[in-house]
Amino acid sequence: MTKGYGSPASAPLLPLEESLRVLVVDDDPLVLRVLQDVLRVQGCETSTAGNADRALALLDNNSYDLIVSDIRMPGPSGLDLLRAVRSRQPETPVVLITGYASVETAVEALRSGAVDYLTKPFRLQDIEKVLARVREARGQTIAIHGDGGRHHTGVLGLIQIAEATISSRDVPPVLELVLECCLNALGADGGRIQLRESEGRPPLSVHGGDPSLVERLREWGATRDGGRKTRATDEWYGLELPIEGKRGLLGQLAVARWVERGVFLPDEQELAQGFARHAALVIENLALHASLQSNLLNTIRSFVYALEAKDKYTQGHSTRVSLYASELAKVLGVPANVAAVIRYAALLHDLGKLVIYESILKKPARLVRDEYTIMMQHPLIGEGILQPLGFLAEEARVVRHHHERYDGKGFPDGLAGEAISLPTRIVTVADAFDAMTSDRPYRSAMPFETALREIRKGAGSQFDPQIAEAFANLELHRLIEISRITPGSLDFLE
Ligand SMILES: [Fe+2]
Fold first, then answer.
1. Residues 327 and 362 reside in one and the same domain
2. 491 C-alpha to center of ligand 1: Å?
3. Domain count for the chain
4. Ligand 1 centroid to 378 CA: how many Å?
5. Residue 269 burial by CB count (10 A; 0-12/13-18/19+): exposed, middle or buried?
6. What is the pLDDT, as a whole number, of residue 208?
């Protein structure tokens, strides 16, 4: 017990205007009656509940200064109630009632956050001491231990999951994080998420926590009908929840605790169900993204095939420009999302040539002025093809500007310096290099060394000087490797 406060039994400890609101929980009506009477005499307003579930229902709509609860009750125990209170109202002190034989349990309860315990039969002085202690603690912050911040942990977990979903497009690591956050929020010792095979995705299972509990969950076996299931054994408690997608059951989330940590209370089951719903959302969002990505890649592939089929001199050009530009993006340390724009935009840069007369495209001589005027339209035409697609907006801007020059003397808009986007400045250098080192209808390919000299010469006029320098310093063997790429090979897009 706590240190005594020595108040005379007859004198109320609290003036009535400072009465404590006390919730008393016990399955024995006689105990409830006795405690209620004693507490009233001590200036408390009391409410009573015959079991932990009733107490939790009262806690939904009321707050109390103190909860006094028996440990042993049918259904959820006083320790379960203690954990639930610490989750919902961590500032509310809980005092547990125990018989002499279970003092050890009461000590354990103190360790897990009860502020005190009372032994049966009650002594008036003990109750007075408890009330004095609670009164003393009012106005002070009662430390939140263990699982006290459960819902807070849950919210933080959901934020973490959202961030991971944005940065990682892979289902397994995101599900591992969902499981980890769920285990933390519930104070569970182990768990697993199992997904069924669905729409081309193979079955998938992730697990976390104590391996022997995970094994028990595996043996318990996921139910297949999608309902919520609980399991109580002498050693562990289990909870299994369906992961329901918009078009049916996606799988199950199962968590478990060793028996000393208690059953999964109704509010904990709801919290776990929240994680299961979140898992469903994450899985469906990632699937949607994967399908958009695959549409995007197929669109680009179709465009590139159509373009290269038209003109043998441009065969492989888009692919090589994309690979040269990607090498540049790598050495320049461009972020992954910008590097992707560069990769796709480089493939699409000459898309507008799809609608240029073949007689102009394949003319084995320099173009005359009118022909050149038509040819100069291809950046605008390319942009016009991509614009309605919306999701390639960044790439469309690069396509429009890939003939701009750093000194502002390019076309169609005469942009200069950094008014030309970084992806465009990168693609421009790669495009020029591949044009110089490929055969054209009106001239033969230039040797690499000569072309690299030309790139350096164009620094500050045609090209961004830093990017031109970075290109000239790329490893020659890699440039040679790229120059030998088979026309139409788009496997690197994946
Ligand atoms: Fe072009």
1. yes
2. 23
3. 3
4. 7
5. middle
6. 93
* 64 confidence band (pLDDT: 50, 70, 90): confident
Q: What pLDDT band is residue 12 in, cutting at 50, 70 and 90? A: very low
User: What is the 37 CA–ligand 1 centroid distance (Å)?
Assistant: 92
Could you tell me the distance, in angstroms and rounded to a whole number, from the CA of residue 307 to the centre of ligand 1? 12
What is the distance in A from the centroid of ligand 1 to the CA of 331? 24
pLDDT band of 207, cuts 50, 70, 90: very high
> What separation in Å is there between the alpha carbon of 471 and the centre of ligand 1?
19
475 alpha carbon – ligand 1 mean position (Å): 25
> How many whole angstroms from 179 Cα to the centroid of ligand 1?
50
Is pLDDT of 175 > 50? yes
For residue 235, pLDDT over 60 is answered with yes
Q: Please report whether residue 1 resides in a domain.
A: no
CA of 87 to the centre of ligand 1 (A): 63
Q: Do 247 and 340 fall into the same domain?
A: no
User: Do 467 and 362 have their domain in common?
Assistant: yes
Please indicate whether residue 206 or residue 440 has the higher confidence score (pLDDT).
206
CA of 435 from ligand 1 middle (Å) equals 9
CATH number at 400 reads 1.10.3210.10
Q: Beta strand 204-209 with 229-232: parallel, antiparallel or unpaired? A: unpaired
Residue 336 alpha carbon to ligand 1 centre in Å: 25
CA 330 – ligand 1 centroid, Å: 23
On whether both 107 and 178 belong to a single domain, the answer is no
Please say which residue of 83, 105, 137 terminates a domain.
137
Kindly report the CATH number assigned to the domain that includes residue 167. 3.30.450.40
Centroid of ligand 1 to alpha carbon of 391 (angstroms): 22
| Residue range of the domain that includes 405 | 311-493
Q: Which band of pLDDT confidence, cut at 50, 70 and 90, is reported for residue 153?
A: low
SS (H, E, C) 88-101: HCCCCCEEEEECHH
Domain boundary among the residues 288, 320, 336 is at 288
Distance 346 CA to ligand 1 centre (A): 10
Please tell me the distance between residue 333's alpha carbon and the centre of ligand 1 in angstroms: 25
Report pLDDT digits (tens) over 375-405.
899 999 989 888 877 668 889 999 999 999 9
